């Protein structure tokens, strides 16, 4: 059952910082080692932004990649949606900074902060804006500088995360769009299991510095995901009137490779038809799903007409997905 859609994904690009943080580098920072990290997470290395490189900088680079890779125009974009939980500022938004860089005069802007589920939300918002007639061409960008909020003394957290950005164009089409269905669930009572708070250092009662600190209850989240995500995926496929056998590619949030393997076992879905990005980029929050799609597009894995199931899960706690046709 394809939902009413006039929108189609027409291009993808990405940017990852040049700086690499390998497992061997982490061995020098915390009590861990390469074997321990790979066995539990599947991550070999992750990219780290420069000290003066922020989410807006990486978003711009991802859009430049999209323009070059797909020979795309962005001067006629009428909405920019950026997903991030690591913005440069509380305000202005990252999307406004992207608009300012490219001078897209007629573009509206919005940031979405739904943690690791954010990019899927953004695609659904883009589809809705186009299908209801409010927009014709939307730039959707995920950009995360998670390294700037991670505690590098906490080996259970710092080994997972990296920085990265990806961008997609979603455009109006004269025919049927390539969005099938979407669905989301939230459990806000468990919101405290994933958090990023602002901590202040004070001397004699005066604030001298502020730092954001990301925290998560890893073992609880692992159990929560395995309990809820497989059933959420199954419901989404059923809602579309499809079976998992109809799905060419499954693209879950690349939180942890071992978690993804466990999800696929519960779904009886093959890992060789599952796209991930965390092996060399780590968990980049809302950017993991579009980075995995970009990697697959670069390697020639994706073919026109492929049915792709994108499914995010994370802070909120939220989880949900969308099925699209490439």
Describe this entry's structure for a reader.
With 326 residues, the protein is an alpha/beta fold. It has two domains: 7-177, Peroxisomal Thiolase, Chain A, domain 1 (3-Layer(aba) Sandwich), CATH 3.40.47.10; 181-186 and 217-325, Thiolase/Chalcone synthase (Peroxisomal Thiolase, Chain A, domain 1). It contains ten helices and 13 strands. The chain has a five-stranded mixed sheet, with helices on both faces. A hairpin with a 2-residue loop joins strand 9 (194-203) and strand 10 (206-216). Helix 3 crosses helix 4. It is globular, with a radius of gyration of 19 Å. The two termini are 17 Å apart. The relative contact order is 0.19.
Highlighted features:
29% strand, 13 strands, alpha/beta, single chain, globular, Peroxisomal Thiolase, Chain A, domain 1, four-stranded mixed β-sheet, 2 domains, five-stranded mixed β-sheet, 10 helices, 32% helix
Question: Low-confidence parts lasting 5 or more residues at pLDDT below 50?
Answer: none
Mean pLDDT equals 91
Count of discrete alpha- or pi-helical segments spanning 4 or more residues: 10
- What overall geometry do the principal axes of the alpha carbons give? globular
Strand content: 25-35%
Total discrete domains: 2
Q: Name the CATH class of the largest domain.
A: Alpha Beta
CATH topology of the largest domain: Peroxisomal Thiolase, Chain A, domain 1
Order of helices and strands: EEHHEHEHEHEHEEEEHEHHHEE
Strand order of the largest sheet: 1-7-6-4-5
CATH architecture of the largest domain: 3-Layer(aba) Sandwich
CATH superfamily of the largest domain: Thiolase/Chalcone synthase
- Proportion of residues in helical segments: 25-40%
Distance between the termini: 17 Å
Backbone CA Rg: 19 Å
Structural class: alpha/beta
In total, how many beta strands?
13
């Amino acid at each position: 059952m394809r939902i009413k859609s006039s929108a189609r994904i027409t291009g993808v690009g990405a940017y990852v910082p040049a700086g690499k943080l390998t497992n061997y580098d982490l061995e020098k920072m915390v009590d861990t080692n390469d074997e321990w990290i790979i066995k539990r997470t599947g991550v070999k290395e992750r990219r780290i932004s420069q000290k003066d490189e922020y989410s807006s900088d990486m978003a711009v680079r991802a859009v430049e990649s999209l323009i070059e890779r797909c020979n795309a125009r962005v001067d006629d974009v009428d909405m920019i949606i950026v997903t991030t939980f690591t913005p440069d500022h509380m305000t202005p938004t990252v999307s406004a900074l992207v608009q300012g860089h490219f001078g897209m005069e007629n573009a509206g802007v919005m940031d979405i902060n739904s943690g690791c589920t954010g990019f899927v939300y953004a695609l659904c918002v883009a589809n809705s804006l186009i299908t209801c007639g409010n927009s014709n061409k939307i730039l959707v960008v995920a950009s995360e500088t998670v390294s700037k909020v991670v505690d590098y003394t906490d080996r259970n957290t710092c080994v997972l995360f990296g920085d990265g950005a990806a961008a997609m164009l979603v455009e109006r089409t004269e025919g049927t769009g390539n969005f099938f269905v979407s669905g989301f669930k939230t459990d806000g009572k468990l919101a405290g299991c994933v958090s990023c708070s602002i901590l202040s250092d004070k001397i004699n009662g005066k604030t001298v510095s502020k730092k954001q600190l990301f925290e998560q209850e890893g073992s609880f989240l692992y159990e929560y995901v395995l309990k809820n995500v497989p059933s959420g995926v199954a419901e989404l496929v059923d809602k579309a009137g499809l079976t998992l056998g109809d799905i060419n590619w499954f693209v879950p949030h690349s939180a942890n490779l071992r978690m993804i393997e466990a999800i696929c076992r519960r779904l009886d879905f093959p890992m060789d038809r599952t796209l991930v990005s965390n092996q060399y980029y780590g968990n980049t929050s809302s950017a993991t799903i579009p980075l995995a799609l970009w990697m697959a597009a670069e390697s020639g894995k994706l073919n026109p007409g492929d049915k792709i199931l994108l499914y995010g899960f994370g802070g909120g706690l939220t989880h949900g997905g969308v099925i699209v046709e490439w």
